Amino acid sequence: MIRTIAIDDEPLALQLVCGYIEKTPDLDLTGSFDNPIDAMEFLSETDIDLIFLDIHMPDLNGVEFAKILTNRPKIIFTTAYERYALEGFKLDAIDYLLKPFAYEDFLKAAEKAKKLIGYEKAEKEPDTIETNNNFLFLKSEYKIRRINFNDILYIEGLKDYIKVFLQHQSKPILSLSSLKALETKLPISNFMRVHRSFIVNLDKIDTIERSRIVFGKVYIPVSEQYKTAFQEYLKNHFL
Q1: I want to staple 62 with a disulfide (CB 3.0 to 4.6 A). Which of 55, 99, 109, 127 is the partner?
Q2: DSSP letters along 150-173, please?
Q3: What is the rounded end-to-end Cα distance, in angstroms, of the chain?
Q4: Cα dihedral sign, 170-173-179-182
């Protein structure tokens, strides 16, 4: 369960958000507040994962409140004012709901939060578990997925996550891990790092164009750091 609070100085708006939280699976309404000062005291004593936070409030607005939080939970802003959107996203807000918003919009934002918080909570456990030379298990979206090495086309590393692209599957598998950590789990005879952000399955390469590996409409660059090793691989397999 994702421990959630709502903060809004408008009683009807606060009641609406609390109602949405209570009927959304995996969200636990831990508290509701009509001002950020009371919420701050509550947060100093209670661990919270997510805040639905109004912006335009007296004394201390939602953006100012978010800035002064030391251990800031994830935030979804709820406001009637568009002008705060950019500043809100600078605070790494998950979403920005413009009032009046329907439950459908609320639910989309909540699903984003659930995925992100789920990934971060999974940090305490190993992300990748190798079982033998043919596959590994990868944690993704509250599940442990078996990934056959032979199904992998390439892997992209993001800031805190990796995307594993598989053949015959349109969407990648997203997991909280690093490219460096996963690289140690892959057989070096089949996989090669060709860029700081990419590992490719050598067995799946069928087209190379201008120092770029082509997978369908995706062009993966081979950077200078890894070019020598990749050219050596090509030399050993060149007719």
Answers
A1: 55
A2: GGEEEEEE-SSEEEEEETT-SSPE
A3: 58
A4: negative
- What is the C-alpha to C-alpha distance for residues 76 and 62, in angstroms, rounded to an integer? 10
With vertex at residue 139, the alpha carbon angle to CA 176 and CA 202, rounded to the nearest 5 degrees, is 80
Q: How far apart are CA 20 and CA 61, in angstroms?
A: 22
Quick one: tokens of 158? 């993001």
Q: Which residue has the tokens 């802003």?
A: 77
Which positions ≥6 away from 43 have C-beta within 8 Å? Answer: 5, 69, 73
* Contacts of 37-46 spanning 24+ positions with Cβ under 8 A: 39/5, 39/7, 39/65, 40/65, 40/68, 40/69, 42/5, 43/5, 43/69, 43/73, 46/3
Does the pTM exceed 0.70?
A: no
Domains of the chain, CATH where assigned: 2-122 (3.40.50.2300), 128-236 (2.40.50.1020)
Point out which residues pair with 139 in neighbouring strands.
Answer: 144
Are the C-beta atoms of residues 192 and 229 closer than 8 Å to each other? yes
Read off the pLDDT of residues 85-135 as tens digits, 9 standing for 90 and up.
Answer: 677 667 788 999 999 999 999 999 999 998 888 777 655 554 444 445 689
- Count of other CB atoms within 10 angstroms of residue 55: 24
List the structure tokens of 88. 């809100």
The CA R_g of the chain, rounded to the nearest whole Å, is 23
Distance from CA of residue 61 to its chain's centroid?
27
In angstroms, rounded to a whole number, what is the distance separating the alpha carbons of residues 70 and 181? 29
